[in-house]
Write a structure and sequence with these properties.
The complex is a heterodimer of chains A (498) and B (147). Chain A has 498 residues and is of the alpha+beta class. Chain A folds into 3 domains: 5-212, Four Helix Bundle (Hemerythrin (Met), subunit A); 233-332, Helix Hairpins, CATH 1.10.287; 336-497, 2-Layer Sandwich (Heat Shock Protein 90), CATH 3.30.565.10. Chain A contains 10 helices and 7 strands. In chain A, the strands form 2 sheets. Chain A has a 5-stranded mixed β-sheet with strand order 2-4-5-7-6, with helices on one face. A two-stranded antiparallel ribbon of chain A has the order 1-3. A 5-stranded parallel β-sheet of chain B has the order 2-1-3-4-5. Chain B starts with 7 loop residues before the first strand and ends in a 7-residue tail after the last helix. The chains are: A alpha+beta (498), B alpha/beta (147).
């Protein structure tokens, strides 16, 4: 399918529009997914903060407990350093956890519990440390022994580990979401890239094909340009030939129509003159002389009859000429119908129609040597051409010998078909070889009836079929008509119209 | 045509009507010479050149040829050419009397040796007048005896 300019522009615009749309979708999706990624990243950071704050808090409480235990055992103030440090940082640490936990509402209740546990634990630790400082070691140990501190510590551990578990779950989910979002982003990019590549490919294909067609069209134009001169020359030759034929035709027609016209006008004037003696005789009435009577009688009986005879035959002749011209002109206008014709069969049928005339004498006959079985042409024209040529061969026979006619069909170069009709008739003088094809012209002695139309008609038909007719003849020996025809009328007409 | 031997007018004209009208008008001009009509070229040539085509039959004749160019069986120009090429007939005056007024045809006829070329007028007054004048012309010209 050739690409039209409109199709090319439309398809390219469409591809461009689709490409831009795909690009917009990719950018929008990427922005959305990046935003989601950032959100998930925030969640991950928050979960990590919760985890580390929780762990630090536990470690602080443990530090405080460790310090308390050391002090209880040694009553040395220096062992109390971790406890003091933990106590002083505890408030900060708790604040840090609370802030971090703000993103995770589900741990708020646990956090409240942790806060109270922390308060109680720290007051328990503070009570034991205070008792020890006062020297009441026993009371401090008792406080430790009653297990409140251990229980609080266990509760703290369990609650903090619950917070850790939740935060880790959150962390895992956030990371998973992040991974999913990344994967989506990747796929979006890949699919988008493929789509854009496909569209770029399609656009390139269209452009390349269009360009190729442009190049091919330009080559064709160059080729046609090169052949143009040749074609113009051929057409001009054909036109000159056609023009000459028209001129000759017009000349013949005017001459042949003028000749009877001269007769009609001439004998009409003569008639007028002939009536003078009659008028004189009639005018004289009873006084008419014998001479007047004789002159009037002669004019009436002989001259008038002769004049009327000539006028009548001239009008008949004119009528015949006009009919002949009409016939040829109609033949020229007739729509040719190209069909596959059985050429051999057609020639056999035409020969059969005149066979009885040809073989009336001993030794006469028609011989057919057909080597081209079929032709694509107008059947009616071919029928008339063959019929006319065979009729002529019989009509213009040599009176002293039996008629022998040979019809040959041959294939020529470029598939053209040559039909030869050869007879042993009276022949045509070399000076008349062109004249016989002219309208109303005949050759040789006029001992047979004829109007001089047949061959003119045949040539018109053969030329209409794209072919030509030629004659070869020796006066007194015989004549060969050669008809050359294109093998396919439709192909011929196409190239003639091109 | 005042020679000792009577001059024959050879009229080669395919149209019988034309032939009759020409004859009538020549007679009206007072020409009483024998007019031998031929309706086609073949018969005329066989009269002029004989069966053998040598033209010897015309030896000693005094001929004036009236020739129409458009004949059914051959071109009048061919007859003119033959007449002017034959030793026995080449001096006979040839008057081409035809409907054609094509200038190339006229030139060609004079080139080939035609003595007079007349175009037949279509209107009868002109036609009759032309023929009568031709008849008057015939009555004064000298026609040589063919060798």
């Amino acid at each position: 399918m050739p690409i039209s300019q409109a199709f090319f522009q439309r398809s390219n615009a469409l591809l461009l529009a689709v490409g831009i749309a795909v690009l917009i979708v990719i950018v929008a999706t990427s922005l959305l997914l990046t935003a989601a990624n950032e959100r998930y990243f925030g969640e991950v950071t928050a979960a990590r903060a919760v985890r580390s704050a929780t762990a630090d808090l536990l470690s602080l409480v443990q530090d405080a407990e460790t310090g308390q235990r050391g002090f209880l055992l040694t009553r040395d103030e220096s062992y109390l350093a971790p406890y003091d440090a933990a106590s002083s940082r505890l408030a900060d640490q708790r604040l840090r956890l609370e802030r971090a936990a703000a993103t995770l509402p589900e741990i708020t209740p646990i956090l409240q519990r942790v806060n109270s546990e922390l308060d109680r634990k720290m007051s328990e630790l503070a009570a034991t440390v205070e008792a020890t400082r006062k020297g009441d070691t026993e009371a401090a140990l008792n406080l430790v022994r009653n297990g409140t501190g251990k229980r609080l510590m266990d509760e703290l551990r369990s609650d903090l580990s619950a917070i850790l578990t939740i935060s880790e779950k959150e962390l895992r989910e956030a990371i998973e979401a992040q991974v999913t979002a990344s994967a989506r982003l990747r796929w979006t990019t890949i699919i988008g890239a493929i789509l854009i590549l496909a569209m770029a490919g399609a656009a390139s294909w269209t452009i390349i094909r269009y360009t190729r067609e442009l190049v091919a069209a330009r080559r064709e134009v160059e080729r046609l340009n090169a052949g143009l001169e040749e074609r113009v020359r051929e057409r001009t030759d054909a036109l000159v030939k056609a023009n000459e034929e028209v001129q000759r035709f017009a000349y013949i027609v005017t001459h042949d129509l003028r000749a009877p016209l001269v007769n009609i006008m001439g004998f009409t004037s003569e008639l007028e003159a002939m009536f003078k003696p009659i008028e004189a005789y009639v005018g004289a009435g009873a006084t008419a002389t014998l001479d007047q009577k004789a002159a009037a009688e002669e004019a009436l009986r002989i001259d008038v009859a002769e004049a009327i005879g000539f006028i009548r035959s001239s009008t008949r002749k004119m009528d015949g000429l006009i009919n002949a011209i009409l016939k040829i002109s109609r033949e020229g206008r007739r729509e040719l119908r190209a069909e596959s014709v059985d050429l051999t069969g057609l020639i056999e049928a035409a020969a059969a129609a005149v066979h009885h005339q040809a073989s009336a004498e001993e030794g006469g006959g028609i011989e057919i040597d057909a080597q081209v079985p079929r032709i694509t042409s107008d059947r009616l024209s071919l029928d008339q051409v063959m019929g006319n040529l065979l009729d002529n061969a019989i009509k213009y026979r040599a009176p002293d010998r039996p008629i022998r006619i040979a019809v040959r069909t041959r294939r020529e170069r470029r598939g053209w078909i040559k039909i030869e009709i050869e007879d042993n008739g009276r022949g045509i003088a070399a000076t008349d070889h062109e004249r016989i094809f002219e309208l109303f012209r005949r050759s040789g002695s006029q001992n047979t009836a004829g109007e001089g139309i047949g061959l003119a008609h045949v040539r018109t038909m053969v030329r209409n079929l794209g072919g030509d007719i030629a004659v070869r003849s020796d006066l007194g020996k015989g004549t060969t008509f050669t008809v050359t025809l294109p093998p396919d009328l439709t192909a011929y007409r196409r190239s003639a119209e091109a | 045509m005042t020679n000792g031997k009577p001059v024959s007018i050879i009229m080669i004209e395919d149209d019988e009507g034309h032939a009759r009208l020409i004859e009538k008008n020549i007679r009206r001009a007072g020409v009483s010479n024998e007019i031998i009509p031929f309706a086609n070229g073949t018969d005329a040539l066989s009269y002029l050149f004989g069966a053998d085509g040598s033209g010897a039959v015309s030896a000693g004749r005094q001929l004036l040829i009236l020739l129409d160019l458009n004949l059914p069986d051959m071109g009048g120009v061919d007859i003119l050419e033959k007449v002017k090429a034959n030793v026995h007939t080449k001096r006979s005056p040839v008057v081409v009397l035809t409907t054609t007024d094509d200038s190339r045809e006229i030139q060609r006829c004079y080139d080939l040796g035609a003595n007079v070329y007349i175009t037949k007028p279509v209107d009868y007054d002109g036609f009759a007048n032309a023929i009568r004048q031709l008849g008057l012309f015939f009555s004064v010209i000298q026609v040589p005896e063919t060798p």
